[in-house]
Amino acid sequence: MHLNLDSMIRKCNEHGYFRGESCPDCGESGRYVLDDEREERLGRFISGALRHFPDDVGLTMDEQGWVNMDLLCDIMDRRYKWATRERLISLIESDLKTRYEIKGSKIRARYGHSVNVELDYLETELPYLYYGVSQEEVDMLLDTGIAPMRQRYVHLSTSYGKAIESASVHTENPVVLEVDVDEAQNNGLHFMLVNDDIVLTDGVPPEYLSVVEIEE
């Protein structure tokens, strides 16, 4: 089996879990915790369980998206004997995209849900947010607004660059829409900041959207 050292999860005694060959804070190689193949398998399972089909794997999810950590670990152990609690924690704490969070005896996904949840993050204080789309979608969204597609919430980006990065997964020449958050919040819309890059909202009406024009 080939091990990708760049994505392997290790633990530094001083700085905790990290991904790669050496701790980014001190350069120590640390202790092996999880290889890239198992990290990918565990990541897919956790994503499904916490975002898409908790009932199917035997989890009860509350309104804010939390499930019991002990029960999740028991379910993991039955599926993958190598999937220990430490390996789950290492996957979460080393994740630069901060997809998940642990609070006491509970765990949840921060974003990406297709199940119906009511997340409870604080309002963003950013005056503008961004949404990357294909050129073919621009006119339609400016006319109808942005609504969730296969997900519970619309996922907005906190910067122009992040919007380009997100949209580039789906289109070669993305266009970025700017969301007037201040005006939308003044009219009762809510925008939840879940991490440094992503803000969630129920939807964005067209009157708060404009195309970001880039000077050549």
UniProtKB/TrEMBL annotation:
Top-level taxon in the UniProt lineage: Archaea
Pfam families with a match to the protein in the record: PTS_2-RNA
UniProt xrefs under NCBIfam families: PRK00819.1-5 (NF002015)
Entry function: Removes the 2'-phosphate from RNA via an intermediate in which the phosphate is ADP-ribosylated by NAD followed by a presumed transesterification to release the RNA and generate ADP-ribose 1''-2''-cyclic phosphate (APPR>P). May function as an ADP-ribosylase.
Molecular functions per Gene Ontology: NAD+ poly-ADP-ribosyltransferase activity; tRNA 2'-phosphotransferase activity
Assigned protein family: Belongs to the KptA/TPT1 family.
GO biological process, one term: tRNA splicing, via endonucleolytic cleavage and ligation
Enzyme Commission number(s): 2.7.1.-
UniProt key word NAD: yes
Enzyme kind, highest EC tier: transferase
rRNA processing is among the record's keywords: no
Keyword set, alphabetical order: NAD, Transferase
Protein name: Probable RNA 2'-phosphotransferase
Source organism per UniProt: Methanococcoides burtonii (strain DSM 6242 / NBRC 107633 / OCM 468 / ACE-M)
